[in-house]
Design goal:
Protein name: PLD phosphodiesterase domain-containing protein
InterPro entries: PLD-like_dom, PLipase_D/transphosphatidylase
Structural class: alpha+beta
Keywords: Membrane, Transmembrane, Transmembrane helix
Number of helices: 15
Largest sheet: 19 strands, mixed
GO molecular function: phosphatidyltransferase activity
């Protein structure tokens, strides 16, 4: 119980708690009401950090008192050239009551972006506390490769992979259709959601299609809409073609299936009121089949050669879904599918307001990036699929090990050959091995940020993780990296409660951290945050209109040497732990995620053009660098060499030009698709709020165009739009207050 005199404070870099404000408490004893007594303990601690080659310099060591009601940092310092550290701190603390024995102090060893390398807790002594030497593996504390603390890359780097970066789902889903068609032996398919018709008909014309991976020519357009035809590639029909004779492919479908588990029940035990509500709502949602497509998919395939036992649910906590989305074919080729199988995610570089190919969905246009790989790294994807499949099936239906596919010489229509490391996030307690789960994706990002010298580019659906935010700030204020740029592409309104505020606060803390570090404005410009938009001209039917593009991508690029993409967002659930009610969970609840690390001439890997090709492809689309016929031009000269100040200046300039044109000539679109993140420390969730703030107007003003918050639905069965017009984010009614 807290002392009645306790004070409440919001720390400058808050932890994530069960509410949006992330409040912490610090107990201040008044007269020591618990009967404890202050004990005079050590005021100095010494020790050393070494690896196989000797002392390790430049690491941060933090001493933390863990015996108080709430843990408190006592001191921190860096290791010297011999790896030694020497910390001084008070031998007692006015806020700490010691009732039972000596003080306990935890020592943590951190790298330059505060990635934890080691920790140990010791009992305090009077005088000088001599801490036992920390022994690290060299590869655990340095380098680009994930080791998971094993002293060597885990899993190992796989060389000789044919790889392709698939920007937007018009490209990505076409690749999925291709590998489904080409399957000869097996398809291992993992998805978060799979929209599918309610029942199977021998005549496809009788079905009401939900999903199309690839449209036969000509595809439906606004000018020439059409319904779905038998020649259009639908995923459920491609899977049926594979499983039926003569191909008889072994098809296995693994779909996310949340359950009412101990993590959820734990909330009701600790805070019965809120917890009971959560359990009741969660239980009802699960009973109704929300959060999974398992029942619908089983119903559709019932009576076919795809039996129920080959369509399984990846049983997960409500708080930590199986979020990785994979199609693995013949143990040789794979696609890491960025999006759920939901037609609303369909899109191309244009991201038009009206697009019949998005089907019966009214969401704003969605941008996404998937990845295709043929070759040795498919082994690690199979092992990830196998881990999840075998956890929910009978032993007779378990998947076995496969041999590593050989290095590839045939690109199979992909971009180039590259060396890859596959990294994962796994929840604690979900699997027997690894019992504590994995945080390989977080380790990968923190290592890349620690090694960055020129630029860090992050394009992600969510950016709320404190470890990532803190690492970015530490990198930007590092005096050894004065020219480092950080470029963020993020959403105006992440779609999870509290995320809009957490993301805004993270951006604000980085901005304020640069000010607090005494950096002049020119140095502070090395950090830039941006959002993505579609701007369409007025026609006889409507005013000019502007719609946000929802970023679902999970991309990171550092210095042109390293890149990652896959399923993991930059939030707690994808990296370390689910933020909400974390203190009440039994263990660290995390999603199941899989990311690729692409290595360009680092860590002994051969050079590959893929990292630079990905940067050029994405930036050409976002920055509006196009060919004469309006397609993104990755070879635009503006992408060849960074301007003075680094690549972020190219982004500042293009976003500034877009904003200026939007304010002065709102009816004449400029093809640049990015706008700057607002300077106001205020959550601006709607398109109108966000754009009004940027343009120096209010939400009650005429912006000169219509901000769009929803798009028109289209029926694949009738070939007609179901709505007359997209949803406009209208001027709100004046408040009478």
């Amino acid at each position: 119980m807290l002392n009645p005199g306790a004070r409440m404070a919001i720390p400058p870099w808050p932890g994530r708690n069960s509410h949006c404000r992330s409040v912490r408490f610090t107990a201040v004893p008044q007269g020591m009401p618990w009967g404890g007594e202050e004990r005079r303990m050590s005021s100095r601690a010494t020790g050393k950090v070494v690896d196989e080659t000797g002392g390790v310099a430049g690491l941060t060591v933090v001493a933390q008192d863990t015996s108080s009601v709430f843990s408190q940092d006592l001191a921190h310092g860096q290791t010297d050239g011999t790896g030694a550290f020497d910390l001084t701190y008070p031998d007692s603390h006015p806020d700490v009551v010691q009732e039972y024995g000596p003080r306990r102090i935890r020592f943590r060893v951190l790298d330059q972006v505060h990635r934890r390398l080691a920790s140990k807790e010791v009992l305090d002594v009077a005088g000088v506390l001599a801490v036992e030497t920390f022994t690290l593996g060299r590869r655990d504390h340095s380098g680009w490769l994930v080791t998971l603390g094993a002293g060597e890359p885990k899993p190992p780097v796989r060389d000789g992979n044919a790889v392709g970066v698939l920007v937007d789902n018009v490209v990505a889903w076409q690749r999925v259709a291709k590998v489904f068609r080409e399957a000869e032996k097996s398809i291992e398919f993992m998805q978060l959601l799979f929209d599918i018709p309610p029942e199977l008909h021998a005549d496809t014309a009788l079905e009401d299609p939900e999903m199309v991976l690839q449209f036969d020519d000509p595809p439906p357009t606004v000018a020439q809409p059409r319904g779905v035809r038998a020649q259009d590639a639908r995923p459920e029909r491609l899977l049926l073609d594979a499983v039926n004779a003569p191909r008889a492919v072994d098809v296995r479908l693994l779909l996310n299936r949340p359950q009412l588990d101990g993590h959820l029940v734990g909330a009701s035990l600790v805070i019965p009121g809120l917890g009971l509500v959560i359990v009741l709502i969660g239980g009802l949602a699960l009973a109704l089949g929300k959060g999974t497509s398992l029942n619908e998919v089983r119903t559709y395939f019932d009576g076919t050669l795809l039996p129920k036992k080959k369509i399984e649910g990846a049983t997960t906590s409500v708080f930590g879904p199986t979020h990785a989305k994979l199609a693995i074919v013949d143990g040789l080729k794979a696609v890491s599918i960025a999006s759920p199988f939901d037609q609303g995610y369909y899109g191309d570089a244009e991201h038009a307001v009206d697009d019949p190919r998005r089907g019966n969905k009214d969401n704003v246009p969605i941008h996404d990036v998937s990845f295709a790989v043929n070759g040795p790294a498919v082994l690690d994807l199979h092992n990830t699929y196998r881990l999840h499949w075998n956890a929910v099936t009978d032993e007779a239906d378990h998947l076995g090990e496969i041999s590593p596919p050989p290095p590839q010489t045939d690109l199979d229509g992909l971009d180039a050959v590259a060396s890859l490391q596959v990294v994962r996030t796994l929840g604690s307690g979900r699997f027997t091995d690894p019992a504590d789960g994995e945080k390989g994706v977080l380790e990968a990002y923190l290592r890349a940020i620690a090694n960055a010298q020129d630029y860090i580019y992050l394009e992600n659906q969510y950016l709320t993780n404190d470890a990532i935010g803190n690492a970015l700030l530490q990198a930007l204020v590092d005096p050894a990296r004065p020219k480092l740029n950080v470029i963020l592409m993020i959403n105006i309104d992440p779609d999870i409660p509290c995320y809009p505020r957490w993301q805004r606060k993270l951006v604000t803390r980085i901005r304020q951290g640069l000010i607090d570090a005494g950096q002049p404005e020119a140095r502070r410009r090395r950090f830039g945050a941006f959002t993505r938009w579609t701007h369409e001209a007025a026609t006889a039917d409507h005013r000019a209109r502007v719609v946000p593009n929802y970023l679902h991508s999970k991309v990171g690029i550092v210095d042109g040497k390293w890149a990652t993409l896959g399923s993991a967002n930059l939030d707690g659930a994808s990296l370390d732990y689910f933020q909400f009610l974390h203190a009440l969970h039994f263990g660290d609840v995390r999603n199941s995620e899989a990311n690729f690390l692409i290595l360009n001439g680092i860590e002994g890997a051969a050079a590959t053009p893929v990292v630079d090709a990905m940067r050029r492809r994405l930036w050409a689309e976002h920055l509006g660098l196009e060919t004469a016929d309006g397609r993104p031009n990755p070879q635009d000269p503006l992408l060849d060499t960074p301007p003075d100040g680094g690549w972020v200046e190219r982004w500042h300039t293009r976003a500034g030009e877009k904003l200026k044109a939007l304010g002065e000539h709102p009816g004449t679109p400029v093809r640049i698709r990015v706008l700057p993140w607002p300077s106001a420390d205020e959550t601006l969730n709607s398109p109108r709020e966000h754009l009004a703030e940027l343009l120096g107007k209010t939400v009650f003003d005429d912006l000169g165009f219509d901000p769009i918050s929803g798009t028109r639905r289209f029926s694949f069965k009738t070939g007609l739009f179901r709505d007359k017009a997209p949803e406009v984010d209208e001027v709100p009614e004046e408040s009478g207050i």
